[in-house]
Amino acid sequence: MIGRLNHVAIAVPDLEAASAQYRNTLGATVGAPQDEPDHGVTVVFIELPNTKIELLYPLGDESPINGFLEKNPSGGIHHICYEVDDILKARDHLLAEGARVLGSGEPKIGAHGKPVLFLHPKDFNGCLVELEQV
Amino acid sequence: MIGRLNHVAIAVPDLEAASAQYRNTLGATVGAPQDEPDHGVTVVFIELPNTKIELLYPLGDESPINGFLEKNPSGGIHHICYEVDDILKARDHLLAEGARVLGSGEPKIGAHGKPVLFLHPKDFNGCLVELEQV
């Protein structure tokens, strides 16, 4: 069911410093910051040859990243995103297997303009898993 | 400098259950467990079309994964691994940039039989970063 690893998301306490580090110290291709007000984050994508790293920084007081950075002041890996062909079919299969989908259970439109869902970390070895329909 | 994302490593409290979940619930291609006594882990590789997930389970009392699972009993993302062409050149560049290399600073042979190094998580947004020469 799952396809490519679309991205690994890393929450960072300083988006400019983290972008500069990936660009200069690690020599990667780093994009420009994009505000995603619907998700309460500003994101920077780092293009690797086979996948992406998504740097996440809080946007607004209600950002879901605020709590994560309070617990992890240096930052940390926030989630991983797997691609699926049909997100509703994937969701229904996972629900039938006993996995929990976060929020309303209906896909939202993610940072790439595609439908996404998040799965409960307790059901997936402590990892927050995003599914993105491609 | 960094190339492909070689793998994302997830520490799991039950290797058999996690393997079965990736195989059956998530429909991925899951390999057989491999003991890596030099690293104190048993690993299972999950082959995605563009990269791998490495499930990590402690092997022995001195396993570096024991402490992680004590702090994260459900498991969690343990590290990410970037490929580099020349690990000694990468190391020297990172040291010159002020990053810290864990252990002796000399590459060890990793789970794929290739030289690897680990970088200090505090220097990389709270992420443990492995570099693997390919």
Gap from first CA to last CA of chain A: 13 Å
CATH superfamily of chain A: 2,3-Dihydroxybiphenyl 1,2-Dioxygenase, domain 1
User: What share of residues are in beta strands of chain A?
Assistant: 35-45%
Counted by DSSP, the helix tally of chain A is 3
- Greatest contact between two chains: A-B, 40 and 40 residues
Mean pLDDT of chain A: 96
Extract low-pLDDT stretches of chain A.
Answer: none
What is the CATH top level name of chain A? Alpha Beta
Compute the CA-based radius of gyration of chain A. Answer: 15 Å
Domain VOC (chains A, B): 4-134
GO biological process, one term (chains A, B): L-methylmalonyl-CoA metabolic process
Keywords (chains A, B): Cobalt, Isomerase, Metal-binding
Family (chains A, B): Belongs to the methylmalonyl-CoA epimerase family.
Using brief descriptors, characterize the structure shown.
homodimer; 134 residues; alpha+beta; 2,3-Dihydroxybiphenyl 1,2-Dioxygenase, domain 1; 9-stranded mixed sheet; 3 helices; globular
Please, could you describe this protein's structure?
2 copies of one chain form a homodimer. Chain A is built from 3 helices and 9 strands; from the N terminus they run βαββββαβαβββ. Chain A is an alpha+beta fold and about 130 residues long. Chain A has one domain: 2,3-Dihydroxybiphenyl 1,2-Dioxygenase, domain 1 (Roll). In chain A, strands 1, 2, 3, 4, 5, 6, 7, 8 and 9 form a 9-stranded mixed β-sheet that branches. The longest helix of chain A has 11 residues, at about 15-25. Chain A is globular, with a radius of gyration of 15 Å.
